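Reopening closed ticket. The problem is back. First fold of the pair:
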Amino acid sequence: MSTSHIPSRDLISRWRQRLSTLPPSVPEDSIVLRVLVQCLVTVGICSLSVAASGVTDTSIWNLLAIPLSAAGAYWSWRSRRRRNIAAKFLIALGMLVALAFFLGRMLQVPGDTRIVLAELLIHLQVLHSFDLPRRKDLGYSMMIGLILVSVSATISQTLLFGPFLLLFLLLALPVLVLDYRSRLGLLGWQQGKGGIPWRQLSGIVAVVITLGLVIFMAMPRLPGYQLQTFPVSGSVNVTEDVADRRVFNPGYVNRGNDSTETSSDNSEDGGSPERGPGQVSPNFYYGFNRRINQNLRGELEPQVVMRVRSQRAGFWRVMAFDSYTGQGWDSSRGDSLVDLRRDTLSYRFLPITLQPIGPAQEVVQTYTMVQDFQNLVPTLYAPEAVYFPADDLAMDPEGALRPSGLLPEGLTYTVVSRVPVRDPEQLNQSPTEYSDAIQQYYLQVPADIRDRIRTETERWLATAERSLTTPYEKADFLAQVLRENYTLDQDLPHFEEGEDLVSAFLFKYQGGTRDQFSTVLTIMLRSIGIPARLSTGFGPGQFNPFTGFYIVRNTDAYALTEVYFPGQGWFYFNPIPNTLLLSPDDNGANPFSVLRQLWRTLVAVLPAPVAQMLQRSFQVLVALIGILLQWLTRFNGQGWLSALWWAVGLTGLGFLSWLTVQGWRRWRRHLRLRRLEPVEQIYQQMLWILDQRGYGKQASQTPLEYATDLQQRSDFRQGNLVWQMVDRYISWRYGGQGVDVNNLKSELQALRRSGR
């Protein structure tokens, strides 16, 4: 029995012996490093709380980790030379509890898990702060702080995160310096003084930050969202149930829920009437309602509605209308809702494709509501998947999405859309045979104006320089006609009772309000047999290059005309003057959109001649690069010959880049020499010439030592000449004696000729 335990005893004794031979862990004694690392972690926790505020669900108790982590860091410093076995067991137990809490949160929040993962790191940091004896342990805390700031950067939608990022950078620099000095065995700042002065270091930091911001704004915005786990907030906290999912618009009388409203006056609550003259609500856009009244006048007070992160700018579509009422529009099938199917394990809804769509591009958008919004879901046409944090979602026949309640402030959802590609050649080939459903709902024109509107439309089409035969050509031409021949008038008087909007626009006022242009284009197209409908939504908004979000306000809402092309889908046409002819999502993704905005700002500031010169230079450069690339693409598919020509082209491009850099250096050197005294200029030119020939002056050499060294070299024959020039330079520089500059110039020319 005893002999069977001998091998195990030997194994245990060997294991103990090996442990005893291991070098003891060296504790970190630098108090400054520990304090700065704790500050890094604190900045990370604060930045996460600020970035997540109003964007996604987070707990205010996360801030409690700051004093707890600081207390743990203090206890760890006091106990840094002890073994702390009991504390390590408690930390391990606490980590298991944190893991259980993390898994529970994952099941409760099936959407965006970034905050849940960040909270796990915060819990681990609190536990880890009680065991920081070594420098390596402090390194783990540094990484946790960096990860928390990185997560905050992905969540942040405003510039409030910027100061925390800057503070983290300013703290990280001395932390890295102290960490490196600790590795060298230097405990404080006093040992080994020297290096870069504080003023110069501050200048370098300022330059680095400025260049970083410029590069960040100018870098291409390539399509993102490569992962298929999209940002979604927690379940919707419905602020007010909407009966039968009717469209809820507080700007109308009875909040837009009473379709029988006939009063032409605003009610006591200040709402706009659904029929007759009235004033628009200053806070709510009139176009998001089951029935919209375009006999309203007034303006909205600017308010931020939502922030959108998208792979490209677009028209954030909300609703569409099929029935023209004479002074507005109605969604005649607005009550015919279809419940969308939702995945059982996620918030993914699958919208129905109402009409076939031709070639399309996938575009992902994430929306965050900044204020409470109606029970309508803005999307980019046409959505194929909606990640919306609710138990149900419905869709009407015009493609508008409706939840069962209002969208509360802070709600985040994501939409994946298939945006039809606008190809004029394909659209011109689209058939003109329409289904019965399309003809029934999207060709409706009141009988009392149909003939007159058709005659006016055909009159304008006859003015085209060439014959227009396809619906796409006609729609594009009529949009241009309205933009160029009719006036935008926001102070238009109210229409009289029974007066038709389109007739008054074309024949009486020769113009109208912004959204009335889209109404007129829609009816003109319908009058000549082209299916069209009115769509309301938000323009792209103001792009923030630092956050990557579009800031969308209520004043960005407007109406567009949608035209149907069989087999291709619906396409926007914009007849509103002083705006883009096409919808923003028809322009495609532009990776350099931020750089283009910066360029426009620069051109607006510079004088016109300078701006034109820069613009022409840039155009010539782009044209040359295009010609080079076009020439190189001729060799694609020719095997090794293609690779050879590409190598030649890239080598030539590299050589041109090198020439550009050399020219820039010479130009800088010339400017620097011009500011020097003539004698100093000649001396510096002499040093540059000798450096080019391989006889450069060492920084540690004095001018006299340098001249003496050249005189003694057997491979250098101009030693006496250089000695004379250096001697005269020393007499002028340090002795204050006068020097014949012309003589020095002659000697410099002789030195140049000697090297030929």
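Second fold of the pair, where the issue appears:
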Amino acid sequence: MLTYVFPGQGSQYKRMGGTLFDDFKELAAQADDILGYSIKQLCMEDPSAHLNQTQFTQPALFVVNALTYLKRLRDTGKKPDFVAGHSLGEYNALFAADAFDFATGLKLVRKRGELMSLATGGGMAAVIGLNAEQIVEVLTKNSLSSIDVANYNTPSQIVISGLKEDIERARPIFEAISDVKKFAFLNVSGAFHSRYMRAAKQEFETYLQRFHFSPLSIPVISNVYARPYRQERLKQTLVEQITSSIKWEESIRFLMGRGEMAFEEIGPGIVLTTLIKKIQKEAEPLFTVDEPESRDIPSSPNDTAFSYPSISATSLGSAEFRADYNLTYAYLAGGMYRGIASQEMVVKLARAGMMGFFGTGGLNLQQIEDGIRYIHSNILPSQAYGVNLVYNLKNPDMENRTIDLFIQTGCRNLEAAAFLSVTAPLIRFHARGLTTDAGGNVISRHKIIAKVSRPEVAEAFLSPAPEYMLQSLLKENKITLAEADLSRKIPVADDICVEADSAGHTDSGVASTLMPAMIRLRDEMMEKYQYAKKVRIGSAGGIGTPEAAMAAFMLGADFILTGSINQCTVEAGTSDKVKNLLQQMNVQDTDYAPAGDTFESGSRIQVLRKGVFFPARANKLHDLYRRYNSLNEIDKSTLTQIQEKYFKRSIEQVYEEVKAYYPAQEIEKAEKNPKHKMALIFRWYFAYSTRLALSGSEESIVDYQVHCGPALGAFNQWVKSSELENWRNRHVDEIGKKLMIETAALMNNKIRSLFLSST
């Protein structure tokens, strides 16, 4: 098989093109008309020294690459099996695959070059000698999170991109590392293929909408995904390329994995040829399983073909959402508390193009910091992750300190869970670093995805930050005037995740009822406040099978979030004994119990019932609390049962542990108020039952508290009799991909059957 590769910026040189301009006079003249200057003179003579300026370089390279391809096509009479291009060269690959004609391609790269040339203050540098993981480790350890990886050229040649002063600051750090063979600044005006090109990206996206693209005749390997382009996402992928990393190494490895493959560079120079040789020497082929694709659907018995956009795992959900978080799949995994959503889980998902939230609830600050630093050292800056923050009604100071830690460690994505309203720490996190692009649109560096199950809570997150909170934060010098002003123009949450019946805190909502209501509320709030950027609505709760995921997307979900199914995986931060129990459950094996953190209010959580007594015992304790004003009012036999069966120790012993845990003012309150003392002692059981489960203690398996929804029961039935029946074969990234791939296949089949049944 044969792949043509097209070079990008950096391959240009004076006198490139040679006789091509005379061989293709009509196209050269067409280029002159479009550009307003002589393309031949620019490439052959460059009298004004413009050739190395981005706005001239990109059109010049496109023309020379295109004419070189046409000459090769004329000489050989055959097309390649695959095409790929490096950055700008990808437009030539698309031209070769008949996505657009010569004139359209030239207009696109002219605009692209103009917009990219406007970027100033940025810089790029090639680091030779370190691999991608080592680059990330250096950036993380030296607080250089403002630098992105722009190009993965070979296993040992990585290009970084960022503000010029940051790139200059990075130079001595890298040069001090013995394995670094070279640190070379690139002759560019901007931080290309990084977050700093967002303004160019947005304007180019608008410009792109005026053009029509034809079906691809040859597979084109995308820089963004290192996989073949999807026709339905062609424009969006081109837009994403401006701010995304160029995955050249992975693209070549993917092509190597297709079989015996020859590569030919079509255009000036041998830059790509050299890179490919290094990749072939240093890396192994990448073997992948192709996702199922749908075929054209006949629209009538006469076999008149009716084609529709093929749905793929990577096209499900909102393309804008995927682009904003740099995701391959619109798939998130929720932050299960006490590190059950572990650092290892988050890393696995990030590397697979999904996003997981580190479960910080119930962890101390040092544990949270250690987890975040582990994540940073094991993923690339371009890979997405988030942190979970659970509403802490009784300890707002902990919420404040946790937000401080998130900001200090460079966490950009926050999952706000179980909040009854917005809080000042959330406002502060979201306001930090707010800025605007060239068009005046607010750019949020710290994103919040709010998990909600009640419309009034969703409305609070869909509203701008409350003015009194902004004024208080300003008075305390916790935000700037500029950040306060920009906070008034955007909602508190960037995105909303609608949580239906699920594990942990739940209002027993039904997705088919909640989703339409929340989408309408979002639309109303968008209209009311005239937000420039759309708030995306995701779906969570009950998603454990392709059928459930399909229902979520059909209800309008821009993304889905799973939870319970991830708790029964290798990466989950809970005990093997819990995973053994979870593997056996079915859809009916959950129950509701009081939540330990809000015991007095009676709010409920969904937990595992099969194989444990926890839900029955927890409900019994809450019933006693509701009926009596003190422990002294409870009959002796009941107290004996609680101490012997539930606590496995005396109430006095429990109270000693309570006193060692709670602050003095809480204990003082308990001494004065017998009912409050009873609440603290009963709440001890909830912490105890959680510790038992997480540690896998043999002390009392029947008292394990395991938050879980029925989605896991459905998942268990789906994978029954397959290798995934055993949790030791379950990995979060593989589950996520399998779920998305089979959801796409199911949707294609359903659409096909609907059309066929109507003929």
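Update: turned out to be a display glitch only; the data is intact. Confidence is low (pLDDT under 50) at residues 289-308. Residues 665 and 671 are 10 Å apart (CA to CA). Please close again.
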